[in-house]
Specification:
mainly beta; two-stranded antiparallel sheet; TesB_ACOT8-like_N (chains A, B); 15 strands; ACOT8-like_C (chains A, B); about 280 residues; Sec_Metab_Biosynth-Assoc (chains A, B); homodimer; about 10% helix; 13-stranded antiparallel beta sheet; Porin; Thioesterase family protein (chains A, B)
Chain lengths: ~280, ~280
């Protein structure tokens, strides 16, 4: 099969839209692209990738090992500033803090997200793999369903992000598209960036929050705002499409958790995340 | 059976040892008790409870909903200071930050833990429960095993914390005590405070990090230092003993995750946590 020229890491839509520019020590300017919006706001995983890149520059270690983000207010496309500070530096790990801020009508800064993150160097980790988790069982990529394979799901507001991602969902988890949600809090699919750029630790920060929310398959529609999202990056991903599974086991009291696992083409569990989100009222 | 007088919430060993004293706006003095040490350091869950209480005082909402802690250096018994700041206050949620610091030989402050946390009011949440997770299957409390029921496990260093907790482990997860670990990354048990104080959201922050590490059942001995621990408190726990299950599914590259679930006597999933820890070398 013919394939378009593949964008490389460092020269892709994702890299351009997550670029940060050093303005002063620890302070980075960024432009939140309208291309990564969904429903009513900029996607939280895209924002996490931006913050991750700023911290990767500010800290002595290159790779996010664990990133804890508390979401404070909904980001809008446009200018933003990321303020970082180094909390601790060690030989193998360093910890930093970052805030993403935008500007109100009066020019005052409004904080969107605050992050604590511990970084290291994935290339220095030992080779031992004693993972007992198994990759999600789902059909081959050509038997999974993307936006062009059927009726468009009714999502209110923007769906610009869907043009930038190549997500093919397991047919068992797309009942919500046709008004027949499974009732199970599960979503599974194949994931890659639309321009073919391979995954790296920063794009994994996007990947963990890129699938439709599990709440859609629980019959709840609408905005599922993230309160907090923590991601562990455990391995540098191999080239090729990723498999992502997300699951919710505790929808109660108006909140739900979402656990994501990301598997690479070499069957390594490369990222694990958990978020606490507000349940839609629908 | 006769039972000793039960300590009440607010008047117990746990409450005394997690007390914080306001020194200045947002700044609290604390004394890290030697009674909550394990192996070579003060237990991370006990420290989290201390930080949780300080933030509960500093923020307008009383209950921790999600607490993300990055552990920077090992705490020692003795004086400490907790510095808090309010990140955002909203109608239903507020977010704060806190650092636990101790003092070096030269009197300089050394940061032990930094926390981001979002608080709310558990009593205002709606009653809906659509939890699909099930409580862990394990024997009745009288058929589970505590320190007085068999050979003492060989843990190097302090085990003072075991006197303050009433933990009875599922016999299926105590093979490590007699040198025959199951090889499964699982640990399950009944949990209560030794003086009978009932659980509340702050003691749950201790509970999620109180069982022996799953790595013991994976045949690894020794110190499993937490890098990051995020806890969701989802419901005010009912009185009575708690059931705790922890599981590791991804031991690789010198790190492991540990997921904990805490269930109360009313079969509610009251807390979920995940930590990233360094795997012991043994």
């Amino acid at each position: 099969m013919a394939q378009a020229v593949q964008a490389s890491i460092g020269d892709s839509e994702f890299d351009r839209d997550t670029a940060v520019t050093l303005r002063a020590p620890g302070v980075y300017d960024a432009e939140l692209s309208a291309g990564w919006t969904i429903i009513s706001a900029v996607n939280g995983g895209y924002l996490l990738a931006l913050l991750g890149r700023a911290l990767g520059d500010a800290l002595p270690h290159p790779d996010p090992f664990t990133v804890s983000a508390h979401y404070l207010s909904a980001s809008q496309p446009g200018p933003a500033v990321i303020r970082t500070s180094v909390v601790r530096t060690g030989r193998t790990l360093s910890t930093g803090q970052a805030s993403l801020l935008q500007y109100g009508e009066d020019g005052a800064e409004i904080e969107r997200i605050r992050v604590l993150a511990t970084y290291g160097d994935l290339d220095t980790l030992p080779d031992d793999v004693r993972t007992t988790a198994k990759p999600p069982v789902m059909p081959a990529i050509q038997d999974c369903l993307g936006p062009s394979d059927g009726p468009a799901p009714k999502i209110p507001g923007s769906s610009a992000i869907t043009d930038r991602l190549n997500i093919k969902l397991d047919p068992a988890t797309v009942g919500w598209v046709v008004g027949a949600p499974s009732g199970k809090g599960e979503m599974r699919g194949w994931f890659s960036l639309a321009d073919g750029r391979d995954a790296d630790p920063f794009s994994l920060l996007l990947t963990v929050d890129a699938l439709p929310p599990t709440s859609f398959e629980l019959g709840l529609k609408g905005w599922t705002p993230t309160v907090e999202l923590t991601t562990h990056i455990r391995c540098r991903p191999a080239p090729g499409p990723l498999r992502v599974s997300i699951a919710t086991r505790n929808l109660a009291g108006g909140f739900l958790e979402e656990d994501a696992e990301v598997w690479d083409s070499a069957d390594r569990l490369v990222a694990q995340s958990r978020q606490l989100a507000k349940a839609p009222r629908g």
